Input
Amino acid sequence: MRRGVWIGIMILMLAVGGAGMALAADVRGVTDTEITIGQWGPQTGPAALWGAVARGTDLYFKMINEEGGINGRKIKYVLRDDGYNPAKTKAIAKEFVENIGVFAVVGGVGTGPGMAVRDYLTENKVPWVGPSTGSSHFTRPTNPYIFGVYPLYKDEAYLLTKYAYENKGKKIAFFYQNDDYGKEGLEGAEIALKELGGALVAKVSVEVPDTDLSSHALKLKESGADVVIMWLLPKHAAIILGESAKLGYKPQWISSNTLSDAPVMMNITKGLWAGVITSMFGDLPNEDTPLMKKYREAHQKMAASERWGSFYYAGIIWAEPLVESLKMAGKDVTTEKVLTSLETMNKWRGIGPPLTYTKDEHQGAKSVKISQVLENGDVKPLSDWLQITK
Amino acid sequence: MLSQLIVGGLAIGSCYALISLAMVIIYKTSEVLNFSQGEMAMLATFVSFYLLADKGLPFWLAAILTLAFALLLGVVVEIVFLRTAKNPNVLGLIVITLGLEMILYGVAGWRWGPDQQAMPFPIGNTEIYTVGSVTFSRISLWVFSLALGLMAALGLFFKYTRLGVAMKATQQNHLAARIMGIRTKRILSFTWALSSLVGTVAGMLIASSYPLDVNMMMDPMMKAFAGGVLGGMVSLPGAAVGALSIGVIENLFGGYVSLEFKSVVAFAIIVLVLCVRPSGLFARHYVKKV
Output
């Protein structure tokens, strides 16, 4: 009997103590010592090449934690593999909100997976910084909880096409994946050419499961284009370069930043990738800015087995503004404070594009850099940040 | 443009034809559609990639070792997965090959990861010859002649060797063949080995021009299947001609009608053939007398 009373008292004390703690941390995912941040990313499956993004974020958070964290709190990072399967992404988002309790999510590769959880995360008021896609579905119209760090495909294609028209040739063809991803690129290219008084000489599309692209290559060759702009999967880019080489067709190839990981592309194209112009959503991997140097050192120290490529450090780019806003929000961090801090950013820069957010405009990035792949797989800059002026 | 489309179609069609032959070899013997054909070839192609890229072997040696592996894989698959099936009926065995397809896919994914790789190949795709308005690449010519050579060799094998004749006998009448002293179980293992070998040659030829990854064989295998259906699944020349035609038809369709629906053509052909002439163009309709 007496033992029962003691146990009762202990339970009561625990309950009271628990309630006290809950009062101190009534912000989901924030305790006195930790802030929990989640990300999904394809570690397996067809898009696993892009899985490096979420691991890059891991490196960045480890680095922040080693420097002492943010206002005394360490970042607790939860990475989940969704295999690029939207159904799995949905389950992960639910786990993040209902079981783990994350303060915010960052990155998250893919338009499809992202679309599957966009509304759910918004309903649950989870801040989401840097969806890892240039699709317009995340920041158009403005969503109060989502902040875009990735330049939109449409804007990127606009800038690339303009660059190509002014510097590489007036006869431009567009070769794209026949879905939202490719079509948003196509739209941007068409707008740019219309403004410049030209038009595409050919629009050729490819379906995701296609393997044999010899007739696609022939169509491009027959169009007589001097420049071909690509909005593709890495696999298709490699095949179309190979098939065009077989036809003796050598235009200036230009690609979206989705294929900006030059060493990967050099490998799978057996060197045909040399000379290709791509846009970049961040500083070049070998650039000598102080931040880039610092990240490269951290990479050498903590994750040397990872390849230092644009997909990997994209994970850093998406997370930088979130960390900055957490710093600005101060010791008593709340969701509202983080959102308003983000909205004060004006031309803020880490290693990504300059970011400007306002209450009504959450697509922070409107610029890309243009670079060219060299014979040895390095990239050289062709431009500084180019910004759309629309 | 027309001749160029045909040349391109024949180059890829010859790869489809090899896979199609590999499927027909097994189908003829046991009426089993081997859905793991593509994945068996993919796994073996990864083995050759391992030998070439990781072990640095010369190409000819790696090719021989890979083909040996392919033979062994065929035998192992037949003995471990199909022979052990209890009360086997055709449908059950087909389901086994579907399961096997997933297992092989998983194994390759686990061992080599999902990244695309470049398979080292002695011929690059920048060497080209131009005749009139048509451009030939050295690599496509090689692919085409190797495939054609292997098809011819298979034809001769079935016609003139004892083993080939024994295989044919087993295909035509299992029981009679056994009574005549043919060890039909062994023949069945050999059938799988031969099929695996032919499929692997296709896999290696495909990997010479396309990035190597675990999904590499999915699209070619479906096209090869369409080719087999078009030619009639029990005729070797039929399957070869059917698959070559698929390559050409697809390319012409892509060139003149619509690139968007290029890949769908093959499937439309499967449905059309099964509706109109289910035995295929080259096989005589076979009626079982009771």
The longest strand of chain B covers residues 128-131. Strands of chain B lie at 128-131, 134-137. The interface with chain A takes residues 1, 4-5, 8-9, 11-12, 109, 113-118, 124-126, 128, 130, 135, 137, 139-140, 206, 209-211, 213, 215-216, 218-220, 247, 250-251, 254-255, 259-260, 262-263 of chain B (CB under 8 Å).
